[in-house]
Amino acid sequence: MTDNAKPGLAVIHIPEPLIKFAYGQTVEYPRDGLYLYGPDDDPAHQPNMRYGVIGTKEGVRRFKIWSQQVAGFIPIPTPSDRTRAIEPQHIPFPGFSQAFSAPWSVSPHEIIETIDPTELSTFLRIANRYEAIKEAVSLYVNRLIEAQNRLENPPSFWFVVIPEEVYKLGRPKSVVPKDERVLGSVSISKSRAGKLENEPSFFADENEEAEVYKYSRHFRRQLKARLLNDRVVTQIVRETTLTPSEFVSEKGRPLRPLEDPATVAWKLCTGAYYKAGGKPWQLADVRPGVCYVGLVYKHTDDDQKGKFACCAAQMFLTDGDGVVFRGALGPWYSADRKEYHLDAENAELLIAKVVEEYKRIHDGLAPTELFIHAKSAFGDDEWSGFAAACPEDTNLVGVQIRDAKDDLKVFRPGAYPVIRGTAVKLSERNAYLWTAGYAARLDTYMGPETPNPVQVKIVRGECSLDSVLTDVMGLTKVNFNSCLLNDRLPVTIRFANAVGEVLVSAPREGEPKLPFKYYI
Fold it and tell me: Can you give the pTM of this predicted structure?
């Protein structure tokens, strides 16, 4: 511990949480459980693995090559191949059907290969970046929505295969070289469009053009946002991920650093199984009746001065699945406190939706414990609204989780840093927790430098700090989009930005209550 550490601090260790798989078997590492036992799903109710793929003809061709690969065994890299070890403890991928006990069709059930690469490339180079991304996204969205409405039995989810230039040019800070820019059809400026929000023009064409500025300049976020109301689940994947051997330099070196094929298969296939409706694993040994809520606040790309922010709640249950509830748009950011806070009315409405959905899932039973996680603390009015929405017998607890501000480092003898799960208690309600660190199962630390802790503080309500720290550790292990040992942040905080970014990336139509899989 550094010289700045406070004397007399209590240091404890939170054991690595176990996760549960088929036959009630528990392990620490998701790939161990899937490889040995299979997912924690009822064999009689396996998810429908009907999937579609959309892309250019070349993109679909590359997807089919990858689909054939994941149908069979993919070995771990041999020592001679491991020149750039990304994950020291590799697990072979046994094949999709073997890992998930669900059939995998090498051929997609639906194929859309009519994305014109020339048209897509032209759209991406439109000088007005709002128009550029909206037109590029529309190539995919329009076809997906048409298929969703046309097909009697549409796919459970779609693989959206994108060329590398979509990743390169489809983000807010992407820059198109001047000699490659093309002129679009939108002539109205962003400042003029802003004025038209309050005072619409007499000219319908001008009002219509102004709509483009309501969409995000981020391809992935906008695509997800525009598909929410049509209930289309997507798994976006780059062509370079599917067939990396086809993207090499003149010297034969990969154009893009990529993990080994088995690791890529574990990550993409676990995400696919979850998005099809499966539960790859769930936390073991959890208290019954517990509900976790992560508060989400997000500005649009261009509103960073705190005028208005979108608020939502992510509800997570012990099986790791979640539902997103979109709340009110309002002036929730306090420039003085540099924190977000709802008013009492909107706080009550938001948590009331969460409690109602929990009761629906649990045959009318309310949660016995409801934990609200946020990066900021909770104001008096805000908390009174949360409390008003909770049943009398529900123990409501507010927990602040954020990166530790103090320059605190913990060291241990040997080559590796502090053990994951180490906690330094500052008081009975406040602790530093190392959710990243040396992991015994992997026999290494998956990080580039000495890990920093997160600060976990009980700011409202009553609960044992040890229980809260154990919960936080568990919630770092339910990211079904990665199949890693753990994330650094619990899922309630980790995906706050991802959910918020999608919520503000396109004009809102209604208040959909959707499972978490639509947003990631």
Answer: 0.91
The residue behind tokens 């979850």 is: 274
Average pLDDT, the chain: 88
* Kind of pairing between the strands at 369-374 and 290-298: parallel
pLDDT tens, position by position, 257-308: 888 999 999 999 999 999 999 999 999 988 889 999 999 888 765 554 556 7
Instruction: Concatenate the DSSP letters of all residues of 255-293 into one string.
Output: SS----HHHHHHHHHHHHHHHTT----EESSPPTTEEEE
**Among 166, 214, 158, 224, CA closest to 186:** 214
Q: Is 435 helix (H, G, I), strand (E, B) or coil?
A: coil
Reply yes or no on whether the pLDDT at 84 is more than 50.
Answer: no
For residue range 28-52, list pLDDT tens digits in order.
999 999 999 999 987 777 888 999 9
Q: Could you tell me where the beta strands, DSSP code E, fall in 333-417?
A: 333-334, 339-340, 369-374, 395-403
Block residue for tokens 């049943």: 391
C-alpha Rg value of the chain to the nearest Å: 24
Instruction: Please check whether residue 458 is in contact with residue 465, taking contact to mean a CB–CB distance below 8 angstroms.
Output: yes
Look up residue 429 and give its two tokens: 């309600």
Copy the structure tokens of residue 393.
């017998």
Distance in angstroms (rounded) separating the CA atoms of residues 272 and 280: 10
Strands 395-403 and 369-374: parallel
Cα distance between residue 148 and residue 159, in whole Å: 14
Residue where the block lists tokens 């070196």: 253
Measured distance CA(476)–CA(492) in Å, rounded: 9
- DSSP lists the bridge partners of residue 395 as 369
Single-letter amino acid, residue 79: P
Helix (H) or strand (E) holding 121: helix 117-124
Length of the chain: 520
**Residues ≥6 apart with Cβ < 8 Å to 332:** 297, 308, 309, 311, 340, 341, 342
Contact of 493 with 373, CB cutoff 8 Å? yes
Alpha-carbon distance of 61 to 66, in angstroms, equals 9
Q: Are 275 and 259 in contact (CB under 8 A)?
A: no
Q: How far is CA 484 from CA 28, 98, 112, 442, in A?
A: 10, 19, 31, 11
Q: How far apart are CA 373 and CA 402, in angstroms?
A: 10
